[in-house]
Amino acid sequence: ETGCITFDPGYGNTGACKSAITYMDGEKGILRYRGIPIEQLAEKSTFVETAYLLIVGRLPTSEELTRTSVMLNDFSLVHENMKAFYQNYPPQAHPMGILAAMVNAMRSFYPELTDLDEEMNNTFLRLISKIRTMAAMSYKFSIGQRVTYPQPGLCYCANFLNMMFDNDVVPYHVDQDLVRALNVFWILHADHEQNCSTTAVRVVGSGRVNIYSAISAGISALWGPLHGGANQAVIQMLEKIHKDGMTIDQCIAKARDREDPFRLMGFGHRVYKTYDPRGKIMKKMCDIVLAKVKRDDPLLDIALRLEEAALEDSYFKDKHLYPNVDFYAGIVLRALGIPTNMFTVMFAIGRLPGWIAQWKEDMADPEMKISRPRQIYTGNTVNDYIPIDQRR
Ligand code: SDX
């Protein structure tokens, strides 16, 4: 039925639900948000407009987009008392753990969602606006710099970059080409059907907990290296290849070897059995942003050669393993100056509108039931309790 996933053993535990938000064809490499191809949105839309499309179900009028942008600006500050959380984290705390906690803490500072009928309501806008501020705050605290506050004259993406990199002695110069690249990066990540973290949001949300806690569950699920954590794992893999001087042939051989822990991160996908359409766009963005920052990145050269070799290799061809969205994402983020341990946080900011849209789809369904997957029992048959003095 519509709404939350019911894992029906008849589907071999790949439960399915009905949703009207995102369409994927894993064989043909198609991805559409509310029917609009990802390629058109990446070329013509902005992240805020795409967020509106996903959550409301249609593109906004000019007035609606302006009002949304104004509200995102109005909601961009974080309660000053939340700084105390950041001040008490150990310096090595991972920003994904901090983000999951901060979003969950929002329920203690901001009102519960009341009116789902409001198409794009304040709670959604509060989350979308503040996640950006909270992410930048974790970076500033980690490098011991004073927090840079959001600026009223900057758009959503420019504000984030400014909050990350502006400081009291070296003002950050907002480059519109890099702002465009960040819009595209977040558009590509905005939703992806019933992936691991979206499923977590819907399952946790089905218990009717507040939206902040449901989203926090999605952030935690995204953190894993097989999911959103892969963008950080790809860069760490490429850095290791570069540092150790591994040849491409060695990498391919190790990735094929089931006994070898080396995995080709950024390759393979549960749904796409062809090139991830987002990966194609992300690959093109590498050249654009690197040219803009006038820097070569040796990791891009390794990634390109690794992709070429893997796509020719029988193991990867036979298993339909292609680059996914994460394979080139890290190169783009490095060129934007984002530190590696913030890569998955960047994914989370992008995926938030999709999580909200999918959560809303469930909450709007009066028939929606709590998620309660069943199991196929494989344990002991019935037996009796053995007193401890008789146990061997
Ligand atoms: C994301 O679901 C989504 O939509 C996720 C996402 C989103 O937008 O939300 O697209 C974001 O999470 C992308 C994926 C990022 N993760 C990585 O790049 C990590 C590296 N990739 C793999 O670990 C793997 O491909 C998974 C986890 C993504 C999928 O693994 P599965 O479930 O095993 O996929 P599969 O069944 O298609 O694998 C087929 C075979 C298996 O071998 P056999 O059991 O047939 O012998 O290919 C093997 C896999 O072991 N395989 C790999 C491999 N990925 C799969 N072998 C070597 N290197 C790899 N990267």
UniProtKB/TrEMBL annotation:
It catalyses: oxaloacetate + acetyl-CoA + H2O = citrate + CoA + H(+). GO terms for biological process: tricarboxylic acid cycle. One of its GO terms (molecular function) is citrate synthase activity. InterPro entries: Citrate_synth-like_lrg_a-sub, Citrate_synth-like_sm_a-sub, Citrate_synthase, Citrate_synthase_AS, Citrate_synthase_bac-typ, Citrate_synthase_sf, Citrate_synthase_typ-I. Pathway: Carbohydrate metabolism; tricarboxylic acid cycle; isocitrate from oxaloacetate: step 1/2. One of its GO terms (cellular component) is cytoplasm. PROSITE patterns: CITRATE_SYNTHASE. It comes from the Bacteria. The active site is at 269, 326. Keywords: Acyltransferase, Transferase, Tricarboxylic acid cycle. Belongs to the citrate synthase family. This is Citrate synthase. It comes from Desulfotignum phosphitoxidans DSM 13687. The gene is gltA.
